[in-house]
């Protein structure tokens, strides 16, 4: 196994030396400014707490496992590909952000059913002008750090991308076009006479829906499960992450971090590339 160590800051040599000792690594290679590969490393109980204390992300990656082994990345949108929760920002236009954000957080921690939480949150938006959606996209939506680097590297390897969200088609379709994503699926807000009705059209795309779309696109591309990477941050991403060969918890809730193959707690989305680079 290679132990990959990365951070959003310079990593002091003393940290790398300590981790090399803990993991009994045969060789240390500096791969980038904030990126190290410790070859022939073995797990040790002291690595996780040490990395957390010093804001380092780590991952044990089998030697020979590379990005080119994969054919599909499936990712969540809100707080994963982008830095905001769109529904919270839409609610802010109504002066209701605290109430909606509280429900969002509870759902992401897995405390309440996602579909029910979405219905409750969307109901609070009744009567809002549809122009608020464009304002959120124009004024507040930002990609998370490293997103474009990650997507460029995926394209280089011919890896397809699926954006699957419990959020809204209004945002996923714009991101799909802007970033050149291959597939996107989300929920549709009902709008009548230019106003949000407080309802979602059709069946809500929930945790199982995300997992089903991963399986659908994977089968369409004739890929095996171990050729798929899934990335998310909330409890409603766990079912789709369980369907993938590798799962990435991105700045995620504790319930997601403990179940993922790898957790990126400090670096940007390009941390995925660093984990699986040659």
From TrEMBL:
Active site location: 76, 78
GO BP, sorted A to Z: L-serine biosynthetic process
Residue ranges annotated for the DUF4072 domain, each copy included: 3-44
Pathway the protein acts in: Amino-acid biosynthesis; L-serine biosynthesis; L-serine from 3-phospho-D-glycerate: step 3/3
EC number: 3.1.3.3
Family matches, as Pfam families: DUF4072, Hydrolase
Cofactor list: Mg(2+)
Catalytic activities: O-phospho-D-serine + H2O = D-serine + phosphate; O-phospho-L-serine + H2O = L-serine + phosphate
One GO cellular component term noted in the UniProt record for this chain: cytoplasm
UniProt entry keywords in alphabetical sequence: Amino-acid biosynthesis, Hydrolase, Magnesium, Metal-binding, Serine biosynthesis
Keyword Amino-acid biosynthesis in annotation: yes
Single Gene Ontology MF annotation: magnesium ion binding
NCBIfam families in alphabetical order: HAD-SF-IB, serB
Similarity comment text for this entry: Belongs to the HAD-like hydrolase superfamily. SerB family.
Name under which the protein is recorded: Phosphoserine phosphatase
